Here is the input.
Amino acid sequence: MANLIKTIQAEGTFTAFSRALEMTELVTVLREPGAYTVFAPTDAAFAQMKAESRDDLFDDYYDLSKVIKYHVVMGIYKAADLLDVMFLKTMEGQRLAIRSSASDELTSEKLEDGSAAHSYVVKDTVTSTLLESIKVNGANITRADVSADNGVVHVIDKVLVPHFMIL
Here is the structure.
């Protein structure tokens, strides 16, 4: 396996995100041993931004650094772990809101823990609706649990922007 930077670059659909990582000091951190979760927006996610906003972002080191750090969390959180998490603190300092319709469905079900029905619902929910249900600040996880030596990558369909930041 490779480190997070090599894993992201090898995927081939993160050219803009890889470029942003290279332009910030985060590239060094994500090459080193550690435990990180990266919510990586695809090139299509960057393409959804207005061209002028995207260009301005890449021209401003401070804003670019804030946005990229907002996509990285200390610790490894696989998709199944995200079902039990409401917020994750980013390296930028603010929190990401994690929402899942799967966990909402589980909490609304009145099944006895440990029962065969409960086990089936939990297993079925995790395997069949996990990707469709988890949202990170409104972005969908389109591919989860891409493993690397020093963490995990979740592919998302939009660029996350820290609160109080206008692009």
